TrEMBL record, chains A, B:
Gene: comB
Reactions accelerated catalytically: (2R)-O-phospho-3-sulfolactate + H2O = (2R)-3-sulfolactate + phosphate
One Pfam family recorded for the sequence: 2-ph_phosp
Protein name (database record): Probable 2-phosphosulfolactate phosphatase
Organism expressing this protein natively: Paenibacillus profundus
Enzyme class: hydrolase
Family: Belongs to the ComB family.
């Protein structure tokens, strides 16, 4: 099984995505938030690229969420902090979500056979689900404003480590050079993920904006078994 | 001092190179070979992008060297193995060199204030020279056919580690997220660089072609104090 890491959305070519399972990774914070929202009862998350698309898509009863420059968008119901989705109010509701990078990456991934949302919090479950789908895999790092983000690379390395555990032997999972790099970096930081995320550009930026507890939350490894999968443009909990 | 890693030539924008010292890294094998040729007495190495440019550039008394698909080019004097340059025959001679990736990266880097050639074998010397030039630095990974190469990333991480040692305090050297990633991966492999290089796509390819000893040689860390610097399109030994 080939498992390639794509370091940023700009580097994703159609040939790297088609006929594959793509795991989109935006640790700070889109994919962590999608996992959290669905595991707290939201019926689905609709990722859209722009603010105007979000406003066009939202229907009565839906929740309108998202951020620009890490802050809630004016007129929206809620932002992009996972803590904002740990509420009962959104139980059974659809979330229409637009974020700076994560939702764009999900849109780009739509060429794939299956699209999953991966984060530190659901890495093992996500690796297990992707492995069972029996397709080659692309780990698509969403990044920040078209550049590579450290925390997404670490998460790609973590998901690779979990895929190695799924494999029947060490030769079964084959990765590309970005994959080897992310895996090695993850192994260097595996016992201190909070500090690693706090040292990243994204972690520092969120901390300055008062979201340090979001970084702490998103740095937790394998604490959530929920795997979001895209079905008809809506992220829903995947039932294997 | 800002020290940014650029993961492949395709990602290098002019703005990332101008007013900087650029260290071009092509561990397997262009920059390792340039260091070796100069430290064995060649008077200079002229990096050119294409075979026809090489043929146009070469003058009587010069050596014509290079590779395509890792093999010597038909009609050329020599290939791109560092061992081919450990001879007395090239003493005082200019080498006109064309390789698949490394020489293209050097051409691209020419927008910079200074261009150095970095490899595992001269990493500490190269970091020291770049630090003393007092400009911000870009570590440009040459990669393989427009994609990131693991061994170049590890070498970027090693050079970053050496730059951290040059810095007067831990805050002086600031890197981007690719830099954090390459540094972490280097630290994971620092005690077993030969094995790391042998596990890379480039290392495997060279081994298959009978160049395993080249990989062993290029994996040696800080064994050569020579730093090539580009002066009027010729790589020459840098005298600080």
């Amino acid at each position: 099984m080939q498992v390639d890491v794509i370091a940023s959305v700009n580097e994703a070519r159609a040939i790297d995505l088609t006929h594959r399972t793509v795991i989109v990774i935006d640790v700070l914070r889109a994919t962590s938030t999608i996992v959290t929202a669905l595991s707290h009862g939201a019926s689905g998350v609709i990722p859209v690229e722009t603010v105007s698309q979000a406003k066009q898509t939202v229907q009565t009863g839906d929740v309108l969420g998202g951020e620009r420059y890490s802050k809630k968008i004016t007129g929206f119901d809620t932002g992009n902090s996972p803590f904002e989705y740990m509420v009962n109010d959104y139980n059974g509701k659809r979330i229409v979500l637009t974020t700076s990078n994560g939702t764009r990456a999900i849109q780009k991934a739509m060429k794939a056979d299956h699209v999953l949302a991966g984060a530190m919090i659901n890495a093992a479950a996500c690796a297990n689900a992707a492995y069972k789908l029996r397709k080659d895999i692309a780990l698509l790092c969403a990044g920040t404003q078209d550049t590579f983000a450290f925390e997404d690379g670490l998460c790609a390395g973590l998901i690779l480590a979990e895929l190695y555990r799924c494999g029947e032997n060490v030769q079964e999972i084959v990765t590309n050079d970005y994959g080897s790099m992310m895996y090695s970096a993850y192994r260097f930081h595996e016992n201190n993920m909070v500090q690693a995320l706090m040292s990243s550009s994204g972690g520092k930026r969120l901390s300055k904006l008062g979201y340090a507890k979001d970084v702490d939350y998103c740095a937790q490894v394998n604490v959530n078994p929920l795997v979001p999968i895209l079905e008809n443009n809506i992220m829903k909990p995947f039932n294997l």
